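Notes from the pairing session

We agreed to fold both candidates in a single pass and log them together. This is the raw record for the first candidate, unedited. Please don't reformat it; downstream parsing expects exactly this layout.

Candidate A
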Amino acid sequence: MGLELLHFLTTDKLRLPGLLYKPDKKTKVVAIYLHGNGTASVVYSPFMNILGKKLTENGISFFPFNNRGAHLVKSLKKIQNGVEERVVYGTAYELIKECILDIDAAINLLITKGFNKFFLIGESTGANKIVVYQNYKQKNPVSRYVLLSGGDDTGLYYKEYGDKLFKKVLNQCKEMIKKGKGTNLVPKYISSYPMSYQSIYDTINPEGDYNIFPFNNDMNKLNLSKKPLFSEFAKMKKPTLVIYGDKDEYCYGDVKKCVSLLQASVSKKRNFTFKIVPGADHGFTGKEEELAKNIVEWLT
């Protein structure tokens, strides 16, 4: 197995890093990995080497990369007309729809490396991003999707805040964005870690792109959203593997119920495969080998 550090520019000229795992025998097939948000980074995840080894042993290259949402706050380089400047990104400032710019750039880079068949694997928020990407770019070169532990951040914030504060924060974020202060950081009663008004609003808005897996809304009939629940997920037409751990701490104590809601939303479709990994938490801690095996077996 070979390993190469690559840097590439997104279409809006952000410089991002990625690791390309290559099998000994040349291949034109590659799996791209999207990490979650918060403190996430592919560099700090031991799962990357585990999954990279399994994939390359089966003739598939692997490209995990740090997108603009890596880390809470991260200084990135932006290059315009040969001039380099520093811009601040990370989870604190990212908008989920910007994943399209990052994914397209990764695919374009890999095309220059000779790849022509693409799989997309997303974990936590990375799973949400895959659905967002597919929703906006239905004609894309990806053949198969793997969604790991897709998250209901909107519902989790609603549970944490309560109805009154949730609605207050939504309105406050909208007002700050209208005033041109969307990149200002919110006070600590809204978030104990650094988050901008625009990113909090993007995350908790029930009508927004982030709200892909509205488990809390459906389970408790909260009526937070006017758009049909799981509508973007249900529109996916390509082969899609969905995996959760049965101890996922962000599934409201009932992983089977959450998965059943997803299954019900696509009950008449045959392009979906669902798996629950016994004993696994949200990050599949201690179950990485089993997870990698499930992914590779399905992809091959």
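Candidate B (folded immediately after A)
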Amino acid sequence: MISSDEIQRGLRTEFLGKSIEIFEVMDSTNTAAKKLAERGAPEGAVVIAEYQTDGRGRFNRKWYGEPEKSILLSLILRPREAQGAHLLTYLTALSAAETVEQFTGKIVECKWPNDLLIDERKFCGILLELSWRGSMVDFVVIGVGMNVNQERFPAELRQTATSLKIECGREFDRAFLIRNFFERLERSYLQSQKMGFDGFLTDWKMKCRTFGKEISVEQSGKILKGKAVDLDTDGALIIESRDRVTRVFAGDVRVLN
């Protein structure tokens, strides 16, 4: 079982990861982190689970993970400005992608809005949840699920899911990856609070191969088809079809060509 000492040993951050709670089994790290944040937990506090019984992604989908094989964590941020808080999804994805690329040598692709892929198979997902106090953001909980040393997946996921071990043929030190991810994310987060998100969105777009391709987006049972042309400054996916341009904030994307 991973320990907080392993992660915090040599951790070079100001606040992220300075407070870590680790559980062998729990329902959802996002749920636990939200409760901590509501009780006043400091910015940068982290909840980690070795296994989740009710891990979830977007649209309340289940997240599957083998015990002690994945990175399953949620962290608390308290951004000063409400504007752009939802863009932390992209900043987190970029930080995770760059961390993995540094230590695996693999090219990581960002898939709108919150997935990370290697060779077109998903190994990481991000779930961001905002809590408001009036017109202000009280806190943000960011959940990260990453398949690290996992080798087995349910039958329905075997063609679409992967892990770092499957892709690289070796096991990885999860504490080492978490520590480096925290350091990279905190640097980016602090920079975004001073300079905004434009630079990070540009870098995220460089890692997204969807643009220029014909796609379909499923939203509540409805299908929208068109060409993915850009990511707007507010994080919306811009889709161009024959008769209109549509901005989409949520949905499942499938590349058609």
